[in-house]
Amino acid sequence: MSAKSIFRHTLHKIEQHPGAGVTFEAECLWCEWKAGPSTGGAAVDFAWMSHTGRSGHSGFRRVCTSFAMVYVPSGGPYGSSGQRTCRTRSAR
After folding, report:
1. Within a 10 A sphere around the Cβ of 83, how many other Cβ atoms?
2. Per-residue pLDDT of the chain (92 residues; tens, 9 = 90+)
3. Residue 66 burial by CB count (10 A; 0-12/13-18/19+): exposed, middle or buried?
4. Number of folded domains that form the chain
5. Full domain range(s) for residue 51
6. For residue 4, is it within any domain?
7. This model's pTM is above 0.70
8. Secondary structure (DSSP) of 26-54
9. How far from 41 is each of 45, 53, 62, 75, CA to CA, in Å?
10. Which of 17, 33, 60, 76 is the most exposed place for a label (fewest CB within 10 A)?
């Protein structure tokens, strides 16, 4: 007996998670200095400008983190809410 695969294409949306915001962080490229996570980008900018003033280091890696969800819009195979419910694959 051979195995079969079925691929189905559906429309989907990717959106930011409604309960989570964006988090900003910064890391100096010259030393181990880091600005911890903050929900305000301006606070991180101020922290790294202060670090630059004290150390002369001007290169930073800025990290912006957000959380996203993928879902099928209403009317799709996951029901009217558009939210995917937990489904397990049946053993064959």
Report:
1. 11
2. 677 887 777 788 888 888 888 999 999 999 999 999 999 899 999 999 999 999 999 999 999 999 888 877 765 544 445 444 444 444 44
3. exposed
4. 1
5. 22-66
6. no
7. no
8. EEESSSS-EEEEES-HHHHHHHHHHHHHH
9. 6, 19, 10, 38
10. 17
Could you tell me if residue 16 is inside a domain? no
Query: Furthest-apart CA pair in the chain: how many Å?
Result: 71
Residues 6+ away with beta carbon under 8 Å from 40? 24
Residue indicated by tokens 């890391």: 27
Please give the C-alpha separations between residue 81 and each of 22, 73, 76, in angstroms, as whole numbers: 25, 8, 9
Nearest partner of 23 among 33, 43, 37, judged by Cα:
37
- The Cα 80–Cα 78 span in angstroms is 7
Instruction: Tell whether 91 is covered by a domain.
Output: no
8-state DSSP, 64: E
